[in-house]
């Protein structure tokens, strides 16, 4: 299927590795010009270099998306380098899992700032361009955790917040030809997850709870994002696409 995103410019936050890197590669393979952005400079540069080595169009910009000035620099540099912006994937985020009674204020604030504030700042920064051109695609990477997980009050709240944000903005910005959707991954086999000391236990429990008996792969999320930013999904907005192997609760 031709996704009709050839030549479009996409910013994927948190794309040095994992789901973000896979998503950036998929969009680039479909002909998009992608901006790899992260605070992990070495990994981000390596990811962008790997795409370029494969003949794909990529550019690396190091930025802290919790800071408005850096986000604006990210957008300005993207416009200067590629001449436009059409797609934003709000992917950056990480867990700080603890039972609530042991969760610190820092645990709460860091998760909220990167996922929710970062998505807010990035979306606000690209929106004037989207409105002016009458076309834009935004995908927030939420999680099955929006239903709630023990030890993840902060993470679950942030992921649920991304869904609320998407639904509000779908209503607010639809008149300008902008769609806003979410992808909600289930258990995904990423570097970050595989590095957890309890990885095998988490994996076993997740697969047991899923109708589809395999672990999710980063490409599963990349494919879902690519569909939602494509012309094939041009009449879809304010939706949440669960990529969970059939697991919801």
Automatic annotation (TrEMBL):
GO terms for biological process: monocarboxylic acid metabolic process. It comes from the Bacteria. One of its GO terms (molecular function) is 3-oxoacyl-[acyl-carrier-protein] reductase (NADPH) activity. InterPro entries: KR_dom (IPR057326), NAD(P)-bd_dom_sf (IPR036291), Sc_DH/Rdtase_CS (IPR020904), SDR (IPR050259), SDR_fam (IPR002347). Residues 8-186 form the Ketoreductase domain. Keywords: NADP, Oxidoreductase. The keyword Cytoplasm does not apply. The keyword NADP applies. Pfam families: adh_short_C2 (PF13561). It catalyses: a (3R)-hydroxyacyl-[ACP] + NADP(+) = a 3-oxoacyl-[ACP] + NADPH + H(+). Belongs to the short-chain dehydrogenases/reductases (SDR) family. Catalyzes the NADPH-dependent reduction of beta-ketoacyl-ACP substrates to beta-hydroxyacyl-ACP products, the first reductive step in the elongation cycle of fatty acid biosynthesis. This is 3-oxoacyl-[acyl-carrier-protein] reductase FabG. It comes from Bordetella genomosp. 10.
